[in-house]
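Design request, tokens follow.
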């Protein structure tokens, strides 16, 4: 009985140790961040978002400067007006400052949302290009470059995809 058990274990050991696994899958990696920062269509999107951000920042600065002027005027006239009138003006100024802060937060959130939507749409445009490249070059898996510790540089397809994106997406 013990002999059978030992014989069985030895056979299993040899079967398991003699199996060689060779992967026939072709793996490549891609730097999406580089494509977003360097491709012509993505640069157009980024410039568009920056232009909108600059316009909104300018409006917010103007509102902020108006609030500062009102505060300075209130400080100058605090000795000339009654205490009740001063309290009313201070509460109005606080309400305006609070609404300004809410507007500023809303503007920042709107800009971030718009930027994310634009980049998401851009990535949706890139997806078929990458899939086509995968099928033409018999690539099974593409991994984001930031998740790679070490790899051969010949597996980097970023430059190829960047050229194709610049040509195909206008």
């Amino acid at each position: 009985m013990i002999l059978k058990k030992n014989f069985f274990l030895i056979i299993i050991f040899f079967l398991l140790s003699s199996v060689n696994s060779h992967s026939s899958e072709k793996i490549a990696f891609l730097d999406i961040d580089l494509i977003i920062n360097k491709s012509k269509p993505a640069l157009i999107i980024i410039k568009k978002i920056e232009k909108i951000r600059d316009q909104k920042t300018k409006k917010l600065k103007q509102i902020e400067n108006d609030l500062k002027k009102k505060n300075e005027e209130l400080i100058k006239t605090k000795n000339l007006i009654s205490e009740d009138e001063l309290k009313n003006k201070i509460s109005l100024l606080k309400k305006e400052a609070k609404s300004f802060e809410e507007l500023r937060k809303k503007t920042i959130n709107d800009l971030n949302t718009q930027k994310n939507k634009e980049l998401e749409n851009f990535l949706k445009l890139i997806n078929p290009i990458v899939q086509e490249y995968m099928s033409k070059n018999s690539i099974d898996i593409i991994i984001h470059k930031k998740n790679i510790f070490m790899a051969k540089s010949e597996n980097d397809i970023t430059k190829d995809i960047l050229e194709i994106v610049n040509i195909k997406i206008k």
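Comment from the thread starter after seeing the answer: thanks! The longest strand covers residues 27-30.
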